[in-house]
Amino acid sequence: MQAIKETNFKFPKQTGFYKGKVRDVYTIDNQYLVMVVSDRISAFDVVLPEAIPYKGQVLNQIAAIFLEATKDIVPNWVVTVPDPSVTIGKICEPFKVEMVIRGYLAGHAAREYAMGKREVCGVKLPEGLKENDKLPEPIITPTTKASVGHDEDISRADILAKGIVSEVDYLKLEEYTRALYQRGTEIAGERGLILVDTKYEFGKVGDVIYLIDEIHTPDSSRYFYKDSYQELQDKGESQKQLSKEFVRQWLIENGFQGKEGQQVPVMDADKVASISARYIELYEKITGKEFLKEDADNVYKRVETNILSALKAL
Q: Which helix (H) or strand (E) holds 94?
């Protein structure tokens, strides 16, 4: 069984290639992006040595399902999904902000709150909140998209003052973000889940704003289980999460947090198989569908053949 660790395809009319932490992106004729979601896995800004079979398929298919389920709210970049691990879409000029929306005090916002801050990205938070409490209403806490290093928090006022996004476009991005989060919350609720927080990226072609990249995947979003949420909050215990947090926890337990001098722990075949199984479980819980394992015996040939076939049809 093969995992997609890295690709090195050459396609007709290929005009560019970019290798991200997880995605390999091919530019075709300066019109289309072919995004191959590899099985690489990253944590603490480090790509781990072992690839996880089916992880790319899980992320790509969850994103495809949610992009299809939200296209009545905002148009998206997708042209076709020719392979379970591949999306082909139109090239958009990305906005230089990520729209993060939070319905609960979790993750980064909770850490800021614990340090005594009562304002995140210019949004004021009430006193007396505990970690993972539901917020009075969802808040938008944008980050800048850093080309190097970490993304940084930024307020709406600073985005407008610095001219990063025009006011007309930014208000539209906020409107889309709230509507997408509402739809995501409703779908999660039907699956017995809570969509805690998530992020959206947008781009533009001409005057039209498009939703780009992935949405509502366990790599870009945090989910809690609905049935145990209130009881765990009342007891002051940690929430059961549906995200890749379990990988981070395993790394921490094995002495790795991405700091200088630390060694990535060895991931044996059993550990790789268990992480793969966990991603498949995430897919089935988030989508409510059975996961169908795509042929992984000659995965590179399959992916290349499916992409070439799709490009001929464009």
A: strand 93-94
Q: How confident is the model at residue 218 (pLDDT cuts 50, 70, 90)?
A: confident
| Inter-residue contact 121 to 214 (CB < 8 Å) | no
Structure tokens, 171: 């208000």
Measured CA distances, 171 to 119, 165, 308 (Å)? 20, 10, 39
Which is higher by pLDDT, 70 or 241? Answer: 70
Question: What is the reported pTM?
Answer: 0.91
**Secondary structure (3-state) at 42:** strand
Residue 148 has a pLDDT of 57
Please answer whether residues 96 and 165 qualify as being in contact, where contact means their C-beta atoms are separated by less than 8 angstroms: yes
Architecture of domain 14-92+268-313 in this structure: 2-Layer Sandwich (3.30)
* 97 vs 210: CA distance, rounded Å: 14
Number of residues in the chain:
314
C-beta atoms surrounding 233 within 10 Å? 17
**Are 14-92+268-313 and 94-241 equal in CATH topology?**
no
Phi, psi torsion values for 18, nearest 5 degrees: -135, 130
Phi, psi of 99, deg, nearest 5 = -95, 100
Q: Is 143 helix (H, G, I), strand (E, B) or coil?
A: strand
